[in-house]
């Protein structure tokens, strides 16, 4: 059996034993069901209202939750093994560092993928069973697409976590850098872009603005979901992409690059790191 598959199976089994999959699935399911049936409570309406509004709200919330969970799941992938002394033991087996990294990525990626499928899949089932006037085929189709995009987003931040874990020598530093990464990507980037737009006062080429969103995978994730749903109006910072000629394969391709490039950087750092 390939060393990559062996390591991946071990990581996935550890995720089952540590109940990571159950916990993450429960979080996703509760959030999605809550948004679907109680998201319009502020307007005085309870119950399922609109599938598109539910998916847009879910995408906006997911950019906060999915990156944080992925980072917290994987921040100690290498530094934790190094601190406990098991990393040296692993490398005495017939595998190299690249195989170890890829095996851990496949294992952790499978954990996040399973949690997304189970968690959001349960929410889709609940909407089909208890939502009023819903088209079950449409619900399954849109939730399936969302699950695929959510899996890609989680894999992006697993790659970021691998960079952090390969870069530092202490778990506490890895945890701190993971939180800083989440803070910068999820909160600071959009605020900085908004400040740039205000300060620029029309000096920035509007044709270039939509592509700035590609520099942040969380914004790219929201853009992919909005593009799939084709809503009439983009809101917030996403409005800079209103009318942009982006195709879905193009956006998904950029998201895949956000997985591959950080993973390659993590592999470069890990292979050069002394143990």
Task: Put the structure in a nutshell.
The chain has 275 residues and is mostly helical. It contains eleven helices and no strands. Helix 3 runs parallel beside helix 7, helix 3 packs across helix 8 and helix 7 crosses helix 8.
Secondary structure: elements and pairs:
Elements: H1 3-17, H2 20-38, H3 51-74, H4 79-84, H5 86-90, H6 97-130, H7 136-167, H8 171-200, H9 209-212, H10 217-229, H11 248-272
Helix pairs in contact: 1-6, 2-3, 2-6, 3-7, 3-8, 3-10, 6-7, 7-8, 7-10, 7-11, 10-11
Structure, described:
This protein has 275 residues and is mostly helical. The chain has 11 helices and no strands. It has helices spanning 3-17, 20-38, 51-74, 79-84, 86-90, 97-130, 136-167, 171-200, 209-212, 217-229, 248-272. Helix 3 packs across helix 8 (171-200) and helix 10 runs antiparallel to helix 11. The chain is globular, with a radius of gyration of 20 Å. The mean pLDDT is 86.
